[in-house]
Every structure is written in structure tokens, then in C-alpha cells.
Design goal:
By secondary structure, this protein is α/β, with parallel strands linked by helices. The protein has helices at residues 3-24, 35-40, 55-66, 88-100, 111-127, 142-160, 165-168, 186-194, 242-251, 306-313, 340-375, 396-409, 436-450; strands at residues 135-139, 177-181, 202-205, 225-230, 255-259, 283-287, 299-303, 379-380, 388-392, 415-419, 422-428. It contains 13 helices and 11 strands. It is globular. It binds pyridoxal-5'-phosphate. The site of pyridoxal-5'-phosphate (PLP) has 14 residues, from helix 6.
Amino acid sequence: MNNDVEREIAFLEEADRRARAYTAGIGQRPVFPSAHALEGLRRFEEALPARGLGNASTLALLDDVGSPAAVETNGSRYFGFVVGATLPVAAAADRLVLAWDNGALGHVTSPVTAAVEKVAGQWLLDILDLPRESAVGFVTSASAGTLIAVAAARRSLLARRGWDLDRRGLHGAPPVRVVTSELIHVVVKKALRILGFGTDDIVTAPVDRYGRIDPAQLPELDENTIVVLQAGEVNTGEFDPFTAVVPIAREAGSWVHVDGAFGLWARASAHSALADGVDLADSWTVDGHKWLNTPYDCAMVIVRDRAALARTMTSEAAYTQADGDAQRNLTLEFSRRARGVPVWAALRALGRDGVADLVERSVALAERAAAGLREAGYTVVNRVVLNQIIAHAATPQDTARVIAAAQASGAVWFGSSVWQGVPVMRISVSSWRTTGDDIDALVELLASLRG
Ligand SMILES: *Cc1c(COP(=O)(O)O)cnc(C)c1O
């Protein structure tokens, strides 16, 4: 080793020592940082140094000030949003990806990541039981995946009508509309807005009392329609009725996209019946960084018609020259991090059984939490079909007080939401680390806070 590399190794060992110390402290610090730790963040407010301050002092500041102010989402008692911890094997794989520093455009820049991401894509289709011919793009988020899928959907619908979007653009194109439910996730609305769909182009499908699109009230569908359904509503965990809706949409010539950011993982478990018929859709998004417990940022966009995705996302001048396997032609990025590698690592280390167990354990723990909350006098609002619980106390004021007190306790963290006009606490069980003891501690705390 030359001296430079030796110094680099020593420095990386120091970084590793600090990261290990952070990990060793999991469960011992407040889940949400203390006011004191948050005040410390002021120390980052330095002027940009004219002369570099060096590696050691930079790493030390980040760890000494930053680590105490980190939210313990990598622990067992964070129940906010739909946040999972990270699996050690997925974090370890990402460590190697970082060391390789390959821009994962495709085989030409990174044969290793191209090979691993290809296998990861095949395994993903297998474990989610989606059409094996689909293309899989490894993206940053379900947000980015939705943007990509809807862009592919519109381009395809227009092409079927004989409209060449690449040449003629949108001006004067046949109108394309979107049908979705009022409960669709906000990032889907964002993706639609970015793509130029106005609120007038979006038709809202009525939902039943569980928040699922009601097939009996489905708006008229046709070959100019993109239908966006969801697998796993973010409050209730409920699924739109795919077996009823998707065949109607396909018959009408519509394109069906499914936002399955976390819920699609039910497919890999004993709860797969929740998502029956979802494989009949045209495209799907699913996160790695939520329920599969990979590090951020990691998600997948899956499109049945490989060419439709590659034609939309190609980085080449012309699609005919495109390598339809290369991730640069399936995602937004050209230079990109190999996000499929931690997915591969998680799937390989866990296997089919391990993924099923991760999902099924979370669901069982959510049911246990719901039972405990009911016993403690809370109203559990949803059916708890998956890993999400929404509940409230006697009055909205009580609910708000309990949420604030739980967050301030440092023992757990969960957030709030509003369901059918009623403020609720929202609890999500999405981490491999969470055990029955964690759930019992959560319930005990909430019982004591109800007053
Ligand atoms: C989290 C979530 C999203 C957004 O996913 P990101 O990966 O955070 O962009 C979309 N839909 C649902 C149902 C979600 O839970």
C-alpha cells in the first residue's frame, strides 16, 4: 500500500469506528433527539472555510454534533410514516458500493453492478409474483418511480392512438386523463403535476368506508385513461380491489399503474390475497427503503412492457440503439448509484422465507398494538389489515396531547394524520428490529398517557 491509501484506510477505520459506536447506541438514546442535541446543530452554521479544515475535524464534527441529533429511525421504536430500519446486510452491501464508486449506467461502466441489478430485478418479479417479462428500474423513491411509470403510460397510450410524443410533443395531442382515488398518496399527485396533468385532467373515483375504490362507482374508463390504484393506503394499509377494477380498465384499453410503495410486499407473504389481481396491471412502484428495510434511497419501478419503459427513459439518441437492460435507459439518472445492490443483498440474505417473516411479523405486531390500544381505551379506526394503525383518544384535544407527549418522551415516535375529518395518531410497524417487547412498551406508554 502506498502512504495515501494507508492514510485513507486509517481514516475509513475511524469513520467505521464512529458508525459502529452509533449502531451500538441504538435503543439507548431518545428516538427523537433532545432539545439539547438539536441546539447543538447550530455548530454546523460555519462560514465556508477558505482553507480546508481537513478530514479528521470534518468527520468529528459530523459525528459529535450530528449523531446525537439523528432520529433513531434505525431502531426498533420508531413508528412514524412507514419507516423501516436498515438490514445489516443491505447496509453492508451499500458500503461496498460506496467503495467501488462505480457509476452504474450499465455494463460499460460497471459490469458488476449491471450483473447484480439484473438478478435483483428478476428476483423482485419472482418474489412479488409480477409478470416475469417486466423491466425493473432501480430508482431513488416511489416518487421517482411513479413519475417514470406515468410518463411511460402516457407515451404508450398516445402511441396507440398514432401520436408520436417524442416528435410532436404534447401540444395538440389527444387528451389523456387520470382516474384515481382521493386517497392516493401525495407524491402521485406531485408526479402528475410535474408531468403536466392539471387537476381538471384528474377524475376522482369514490371510495368505500375502508378507503378502497368502489368498483360500483368507478368512473367511465377508456383508451385515453391512466388508472392509478394503490396497494397499501398510507393511513389504513388498505388495498384497492384489483380483481374488480383492473380487468375493467384493461378491457377499456386504459393503462393501470399501482402505487405499492410499501403494500406490494404483502405479495411476498401469507397476506398476498390482499393484492390479488395486482399482477394484471401495467406498471407498479415499490420501495426498498420502507418495508424491505434497505438503506435510503432505494425503490423500484416495474413496467410490464419493457420497450415502453425503455422508449420513455432511453438515454440514447434513438431507442433502436438502446440497451434495454441498462439502468440508464430505465431510470431518470445517467450517472447513478447501484440501488439494486442492497435489494439483491436483502433478498439473498433473507430469502423467500425471510421476507415473508419480515412482513408477517410486522402485521402480527400491528395487530398486537391495535389490541393493546383498544384495551387501553383508544378507538382503533381501521381494520388493521397490514402494518398500519390509526387510532384516537376520546377527543381531538386528547389525541393531540397524547401524540405530543409520546413524541416528547423519547421512548417512541409516531406521527399524526387525519382520517375522514378526524385527527388520528398513525402507527406503522415496518422494522425488522421491532419485537413484541417494543410493542408492549408502546402500548404501556400510551395507556399511561391516556389519563
Ligand atoms: C411513502 C409512500 C410513497 C412515497 O414513496 P417515496 O419512496 O417516499 O417517494 C408513495 N405512496 C405510498 C403509499 C407511500 O407510503
